[in-house]
Amino acid sequence: MKRKETVKDGISKAIDVLIESGVDLSRLFDQDGLLKQLSKRLVEKALQSEMDDHLGYNKYARSDSENVRNGLSSKQVITDNGVILVEVPRDRASTFEPILLPNRQTRIPSLDDKILSLHAKGMSLSDIQIQIQELYGAEVSESLISNITDSVIEDVKIWQNRPLESVYSIVFFDCFVVKVRQDKRIINKAVYVALGIDRSGIKDVLGLWMSENEGAKFWLGNLTELKNRGMNDMLIACTDNLSGMSEAIAAVYPKTEHQLCIVHAIRGSLQYVSYKHRKVLVADLKPIYTAVTEQEALMALEAFATKWNQQYPQIAQS
C-alpha cells in the first residue's frame, strides 16, 4: 500500500510541477501534445531500465562485461495516444529482448484489444482500418488486423475444449441474441449458453453454441460434448422449456431433475389472464414458488386453486 501511495504521490507532484511551470494544457491532446510526449518518454525510460537489468549495470557504471550498449534504433509505435517515435536501446551481442515492447512489435498490446472489440461488434477489416486511422493517425494493414483477430481463435478453441468439473449443482440453459456479420450483412443470431454452478457455488460458463434450429438432436450433441469434457452429472437442469431439451437431458443425464424456469412458467400462466387480474394473481402465485418445503408449496397451490380455478383452471393444473 505504501509503495502504491508513493508512486501516486510522485505522479501527482509531477503534474503539479508541469502546471506551475506554465505548460500550455490546451494542447495536451494535440497531435504532438504533452500527452504523447509523456508517453514517449515513459516508454523510453522503461526500455532503458530493461536494458540496465539485461546488462546487470546502469548506463554510467563500470563493468567488465563484454556485452555493452550499442546505441539506439528508432521505430514507430502505435499507442492509445497515437503514433510515437521511440528510441529503443541496443546491445552489442544483440541479445536484448524488451518485455514492454518486444522486437518487431510496433503497437502497444491494448490496441489489439480495441481491434478485437471492433471486430466483435461486426465491423469489417476495412472499417476497422479506417477507424484506427481516424482515432490514432496510424496506418494498419488489413492483413495485420486479420492476424490479430485470428490470434484469439486458438485461445477460443482451448476454452471450448477445457475440462469441466465432474458434478455441477445447477446448470442453467438459455440463449441471447448477438449481431454477427454474415454474407456482408449484419444479422441477429441466437447464442445458446450453459451456465453451471459447481459444488462450491462458483459460476462458470460451460459452453456456447450457435444454431439455426434448436431441437433434441441439437441439445443431445451439446450435452454429449459436456459429458465428454468431464461433466458426469448435474443435479438440476434449469431451462425455459427449450425445444427438445427434456428428451436430450433424459438421454444423457437420466438422473438429472429438469426444472423449468420459474419466470417463464409464470409468464406462461399469465398468457390468458385478464390484465386487471394479473397483479393480484401473481401475488397469489408467489407463495407457491417461494415455499421452503414441498408440503408448504402444495398448501399454497391448493389455496390458489380454491381462489382462481373457477376463472382460470388451467393455471393450477400447469
Overall mean pLDDT: 79
- The first-to-last residue Cα distance is 58 Å
Number of strands: 7
Indicate the proportion of strand residues. Answer: 15-25%
Descriptive keywords:
318 residues, alpha/beta, five-stranded mixed sheet, two-stranded antiparallel sheet, elongated
Describe this structure in words.
Helix content is 46%, strand content 22%. With 318 residues, the protein is of the alpha/beta class. The strands form two sheets. A five-stranded mixed sheet has the order 5-4-3-6-7. Helix 6 packs parallel to helix 7. The chain is elongated, with a radius of gyration of 30 Å.
What is shown here, in short?
The protein has 318 residues and is an alpha/beta fold.
What is the topology?
Layout: H1 2-20, H2 34-55, E1 69-79, E2 82-91, H3 110-120, H4 125-136, H5 142-160, E3 167-182, E4 185-198, E5 203-210, H6 216-228, E6 233-239, H7 245-252, E7 257-260, H8 262-269, H9 275-289, H10 294-308, H11 313-317
Parallel strand pairs: 3-6, 6-7
Antiparallel strand pairs: 1-2, 3-4, 4-5
